[in-house]
Design goal:
With about 475 residues, the protein is α+β, with helices and mostly antiparallel strands. The protein has 16 helices and 18 strands. It folds into four domains: about 90 residues, Uridine Diphospho-n-acetylenolpyruvylglucosamine Reductase, domain 2 (2-Layer Sandwich), CATH 3.30.43; about 120 residues, Uridine Diphospho-n-acetylenolpyruvylglucosamine Reductase, domain 3 (2-Layer Sandwich); about 110 residues, Alpha-Beta Plaits (2-Layer Sandwich), CATH 3.30.70; about 90 residues, 2-Layer Sandwich (Alpha-Beta Plaits). Bound molecules: flavin-adenine dinucleotide (FAD).
Length: about 475
């Protein structure tokens, strides 16, 4: 590829500082939050939909791969480029409108998730999806990965809040899909295809999101268990008891110990598991729900450690939630590398899945910490390893494969929220029959006939298609 010519064409519309070619600058955009590494040939910092369309027209003409990027917090290698153009959407970070009458926000893709939440709160409104990375990740990245978070147990994931999208397709054509209405069956719902598409169908350049009224009160509990299975069984019992908690989050002993040495908060590190539960709504209803939750937990061997109840705008529950958000960075301190898997199983299978993960850890001699959004059946088995040790990495590969096999055999899926990206590609043919993989490919070809949009992510190459699950 004649990159000088490509850069000249890009700069016909873009300022020189929007088109970055020096090695040090490009290196920053070669990684996400995983160990996967790549290098773009050019980085373009987009500031408008017109910038994005300009880049995609040129890329399509010259068949250059384009990797859209939010803030690179992804945990599947989705934003890691293997050459081509890294299209950085972070500068498109304006909240265009918050409209309490229609109950919506309209944002550019580079808006940080927490920034949108705070701006909504100023209007008494609530944007529930809350990935643990919410201080750094973008709404565009959240839509592209259909991100989840603790509050998604009660309120649903990013998908449930997207009313409208503006997307730019590979040839530079911009489409507006959906809009500001709450109900719409007037066409095929194309916007849903872009949610969770991991940058493989087009670039998301504007998002219209549904907002809810802010619940007046929130309360939370920390419950310790001497047996890990007790915590899993208590979760299943709670969710079938007629209560819908705001969240049920889980940590095993390894995760608790890591979090405690990362940011001490008095966690019971001798216990085998910790559940963090929360409820929201009217204050009296929250108190009643917390009491009912405590009873269910105690019946299954749980010991109440802490109760938090927000009143007078003092967010005590935030303290408990912060403990959960520290899980991923804390585990990163335990070993040179960590690989965070993201399987989801039907919730009745949670105890069996947790048991199987412990067996896999023993069989492969790989330490596996376990935490996650257990109320959704979404667990993050985290393999602690050293990528410089080939023997260990062979055992890590076996452990990952065994975890995926177990999840699939229990009616679960390879990823609940992080996506397939680059890192789980090899397992996709195990999860879908050929007929469905072929439909995926046909869909991709419809929107991106030249395969320039984040190629080699989410969908394995056609050669993999011969392996029927
Ligand atoms: C500590 C930590 C905790 C996390 N906790 C959670 C969690 O609780 N829940 C959860 O779901 N995830 C979590 N994540 C993963 C990550 O934060 C999410 O996947 C997030 O949605 C990625 O946003 P981003 O802006 O960083 O996107 P990036 O990492 O930049 O990109 C992610 C994918 O989206 C594509 N993409 C990005 N922007 C666009 C766009 N505008 N148009 C088209 N495609 C685009 C990229 O090509 C890539 O495939 C966590 C990550 C970390 C590091």
């Amino acid at each position: 590829m004649d990159w000088e010519r490509v850069v000249r064409r890009l700069r016909e519309r873009l300022r020189p500082d929007q088109v970055e070619t020096d090695l040090a600058g490009r290196r920053v955009y070669g990684r996400d939050a995983t160990w996967a590494e790549g290098m773009p040939d050019v980085v373009v910092h987009a500031e408008s939909t017109a910038d994005v369309a300009h880049v995609l027209r040129i890329a399509n003409d010259l068949r250059i791969p384009v990797v859209p990027r939010g803030r690179g917090t992804g945990l599947a290698g989705g934003a890691v480029p293997k050459g081509g153009i890294c299209l950085n959407l972070a500068p498109m970070n304006r909240i265009l409108a918050i409209d309490p009458a229609d109950g919506i926000a309209i944002v550019q893709p580079g808006v940080i998730t927490r920034t949108l939440q705070q701006a909504s709160e100023a209007h008494g409104l609530f944007y529930p999806p809350d990935p643990a990375s919410l201080e750094t990740c973008t709404i565009g990245g959240n839509v592209a990965t259909n991100a989840g978070g603790p509050c998604c147990l009660k309120y649903g994931v990013t998908r449930d809040y997207v009313l409208g999208l503006e997307v730019v397709l590979a040839g530079g054509e911009a489409l507006r899909l959906g809009g500001r209405v709450m109900k719409d069956v007037s066409g095929y719902d194309l916007k849903q295809l872009f949610i969770g598409s991991e940058g493989t169908l087009g670039v998301i350049t504007e998002i219209t999101l549904r907002l809810l009224p802010m619940p007046p009160a929130r309360g939370a509990l920390a419950i310790a268990f001497n047996r890990l299975e007790g915590a899993c069984e208590a979760t299943v019992a709670l969710l079938s008891s007629g209560i819908l908690p705001l969240m049920v989050e889980f940590m095993d002993q390894t995760t608790m110990q890591a979090v405690e040495s990362f940011r001490p908060s008095g966690l019971p590190t001798q216990a085998e598991a910790l559940l963090l539960l929360a409820a929201d709504g009217e204050p009296a209803a929250v108190e009643a729900d917390l009491q009912r939750m405590i009873s269910v937990m105690q019946r299954h061997g749980g010991q109440l450690l802490r109760t938090a109840f927000d009143a007078d705008n003092t967010p005590y529950t935030e303290e408990l939630l912060e403990i959960r958000r520290n899980a991923s960075p804390a585990l990163a301190q335990l070993a040179p590398h960590k690989i965070s898997e993201d399987i989801t199983v039907p919730r009745s299978k949670i105890p069996a899945m947790a048991r199987r993960i412990q067996e896999i850890s023993r069989e492969t001699d790989i330490p596996i910490a376990l935490y996650g959004h257990i109320g959704d059946g979404n667990l993050h088995p985290t393999l602690l390893c050293d990528r410089g040790n080939p023997d260990e990495m062979t055992r890590v590969a076996h452990a990952s494969a065994a975890i995926f096999e177990a999840a699939l055999s229990m009616g679960g899926v390879l990823s609940g929220e992080h996506g397939i990206g680059l890192l789980k590609l090899d397992f996709v043919p195990r999860a879908f029959p050929i007929a469905i993989l072929e439909k995926f490919r046909a869909l991709k070809a419809l929107f991106d006939p030249q395969n320039i949009m984040n190629p080699g992510k989410k969908l394995p190459p056609a050669t993999h298609l011969s392996e029927e699950p």
